[in-house]
Design brief:
Largest sheet: 11 strands, parallel
Number of strands: 11
Strand content: 5-15%
Helix content: 40-55%
Order of helices and strands: EHEHEEHEHHEHEHEEHHHHHEHEH
Length: 333
């Protein structure tokens, strides 16, 4: 299992980002991971980091498929592989309707079919050995819709190929995870449970091919006061379980319920959607926080890590709440 660092919460100021990247490379971190929602994009910081490092792998966790056509993502990935000499780990996800329609202004539709089409097109484009053609349910290349000009023709990339670029898929639901093991090279889970993962991920991962990546992101609050550390991460967990989605469609709530926290998840969401944020926070138990995050003194986190090490994780992406934890986590590792 490798150690990665999420840039969520880290400064994107140029000097500081470069210093962080060089520092974690020297500390033994294997990779650095960016994310995107409706703020910074996922690829630009990685291109900047590529110029400051030599071995650090560069991952997107995640790049949103609805933010770019498959062709744009292929161009970006091929360019990144040239600039970084092959260090890109391409993590993709469908995001959710609130962001896709609210920010990108496109329809959130058929996420499984869209992911399948998107990756099929990417595979061809990254191989750069044939002209790209794909007749899909959501994405087709060339485009042949009723409003097309009819002039589109298959094209092959002019850039050096990068067919071995790992494509990792963010997935939570059973069908999404099964699809990730079928068409992807890895899985990017969120709110992973080291003690209950089998109930959610075990079936699909049992059929994953050799070399399949499993790279969950985990929030880390390191400090001497265990209760205070729990309280640092509790709002994030409460937000995801209670408010990330609608009453009837919240993937994170469903995930936590499948871990066995059905009553707690329902209570958190009910309070959160009613506007009682304090009540929702209070309903998020220490047990749930400890299950989904790494919190507390160094010794306590070392004990927690033992459970994570027993999981089929290939890269653990840590998201520390404070920058001073980066070196301590490397020492723990």
């Amino acid at each position: 299992m490798h150690l990665g660092l999420s840039t969520i919460g880290q400064s994107l100021a140029p000097a500081q980002l470069a210093a962080t990247a060089r520092r974690i490379e020297s500390l033994g971190y294997d990779s650095i991971w960016t994310a995107e929602a409706w703020g910074a994009d996922a690829f630009t910081p990685l291109a900047f980091v590529a110029a400051s490092t030599t071995t650090l792998r560069l991952g997107t966790a995640i790049a949103q498929i609805w933010a770019r056509t498959p062709g744009t993502t292929a161009m970006t990935a091929l360019t990144m592989q040239q600039l970084s000499e092959g260090r890109l780990l391409l993590g993709l996800g469908v995001s959710g309707p609130q962001v896709v329609e609210g920010w990108h202004g496109v329809a959130f539709q058929r996420p499984l079919a869209a992911t399948r089409d998107y990756i099929a097109i990417l595979r061809q484009a990254l191989a750069a050995d044939v002209k790209v053609t794909h007749d899909g349910d959501v994405f087709s290349v060339p485009y042949r819709g009723t409003d097309s000009s009819g002039l589109g023709r298959p094209l092959r990339s002019t850039q050096p190929p990068a067919p071995d670029t790992p494509i990792l898929v963010a997935a939570l639901g059973p069908k999404n995870v099964a699809l990730a093991t079928e068409v992807g090279d890895g899985l990017l889970p969120y709110l992973w449970s080291p003690n209950h993962w089998q109930a959610v991920w075990g079936g699909a991962l049992s059929g994953a091919p050799d070399g399949f990546h499993v790279a969950p992101t985990v929030i880390v609050a390191l400090g001497d006061d265990l209760a205070a550390c729990r309280d640092e991460v509790r709002p994030r967990i409460t937000l995801h379980v209670g408010g990330m989605g609608s009453k009837d469609q919240n993937f994170y709530k469903s995930l936590v319920e499948r871990y066995g926290f059905e009553e707690e998840a329902e209570r958190i969401q009910t309070l959160f959607l009613a506007g009682d944020r304090a009540g929702a926070l209070a309903a998020t138990s220490d047990e749930l926080v400890d299950e989904l995050a790494l919190v507390g003194p160094v010794g306590h986190i070392a004990e927690q890590l033992e459970a994570w090490r027993r999981c089929p994780i290939t890269t653990l992406i840590v998201e520390p709440t404070r920058a001073d934890a980066i070196a301590q986590l490397a020492e723990l590792w």
